[in-house]
Amino acid sequence: MSAAARAARRGLRSGNFAVGGALTLVFVAMAALSFVWTPYEPTAIAILKKLQGPSAAHLLGTDAFGRDVFSMIMAGARNSIGVALVAVAVGAGFGVPLGALAAARGGAIDNLVMRSTDLAFAFPALLSAVIITAIAGPGAINAMIAIGIFNIPVFARLTRGSAMSLWRRDYVLAARCAGRGDLAITIDHILPNLMAVLIVQATIQFALAIVAEAGLSYVGLGVQPPAPSWGKMLNDAQTYIYQAPYLAIFPGLAITLCVLGLNLLGDGLRDWLDPRIRRER
After folding, report:
1. Which of 115-124, 126-135, 149-158 has the highest mean pLDDT?
2. Helix 15-33 to helix 3-13 angle, to the nearest 10 degrees?
3. Is 274 in a helix, a strand, or coil?
């Protein structure tokens, strides 16, 4: 049996990996499908059909403007996953190099990077979004920037902490003796050995970014109408919470299941990729 087949088989034996992967795949497929098809146009208003409960015509009912809730959830998955994906990419794109630099050089550079991350932690995503919105106005791009800024110190600290232990390994010392520089060692030896932990952390941050995006949209700082967003759907549902509770239940359930899937996937990936856990099992 090939190494890839053994790895796939080992992953499928993990309940967390299988369930998390299935849930994540469902929402990713839903988001991708929404680019080409939804049961109804997500932004189409049909006042005569407003606040209709779940039925064969409208699987999850309609909202106060007659829009199909299932179509909005599909389009909302696209927006939420898109914002979270870019935000995590921004966090990893800046945080990983900064953490690797701090671990490689140490001294004043290490102190500067770590103190900068401490400062960034003082501005959570919501507060960053408020500041950015006050300057540039609300919108999906600003939500990506705000959540991405919050992710940078997370990846920087993780990379720095993990890389510090790798710099003491024998193969790194051997590379130094062979005349390799810090940049070459980081690219050839440090970062490849950090990929497993970075992938797991990216999965976890992805889930947190989806929650952050929903929170920002809930308070009007994220994706702007008429583009559907799970957080905005929850905000709109407040007025009709007793008359049409499904308006809050279904987008709330979408957020819960998506985040649960990503968290289970991250936990399964950690069990799968960590050789120490595999040996214990």
Report:
1. 149-158
2. 100
3. coil
11-32 b/e with 16+ CB inside 10 Å = b? beebebbeebbebbeebbebbe
Among the listed residues 194, 233, 196, 198, the one whose alpha carbon sits nearest the alpha carbon of residue 213: 233
- Higher-pLDDT residue of 176 and 277 is 176
33-245: CATH topology:
MetI-like fold (1.10.3720)
DSSP state string for 166-198: HTTSHHHHHHHHTT--HHHHIIIIIHHHHHHHH
Residue type, 4: A
Cα four-point dihedral sign 222, 226, 230, 232: positive
Contact in structure between 136 and 142 (CB atoms under 8 Å): yes
CA 24 – CA 50 distance, rounded (Å) = 31
Q: Structural domain boundaries of the chain? A: 33-245
For the chain, the first-to-last Cα distance in angstroms comes to 20
Q: What is the pTM of this model?
A: 0.88
Residue 98 CA to residue 109 CA, distance in Å, equals 10
> Residues 266, 197, 80, 14: what is their CA dihedral angle, to the nearest 10 degrees?
-20
- Which of 5-14, 32-41, 161-170, 266-275 is modeled with the greatest confidence? 32-41
